[in-house]
Amino acid sequence: MKQIQWFPGHMFKSLRQIRERMTLMDIVLVLLDSRLPSSSMNPEIFKIIKD
User: Fold this and answer.
1) What pLDDT, on the 0 to 100 scale, is given for residue 32?
2) What is the pTM of this model?
3) Spatial separation of the C-alpha atoms in residues 39 and 42, rounded to whole Å
4) 18 lies in which domain range?
5) Is residue 25 part of a domain?
6) What confidence category does residue 27 fall into, taking pLDDT thresholds of 50, 70 and 90?
7) Does residue 27 lie in a domain region?
8) Which of 3, 4, 8, 32 would bridge with 37, disulfide CB 3.0–4.6 Å?
9) Residue 49 in contact with residue 28, Cβ under 8 Å?
10) Is residue 18 a contact partner of residue 48, using CB atoms and an 8 Å limit?
11) Which residues contact 15 (CB under 8 A, 6 or more apart)?
């Protein structure tokens, strides 16, 4: 049985680019869906922002 990849390559690439560009940013604005903010949040983004 083939294993399902839940973290596609484009998501990995985006997170890598965000990490690289964080040094160029003074402010980070996180936009979430107000109907379900916890569901529209990517915890990996917040890990990157904290560093």
Assistant:
1) 92
2) 0.64
3) 8
4) 9-50
5) yes
6) very high
7) yes
8) 32
9) yes
10) yes
11) 44, 45, 48
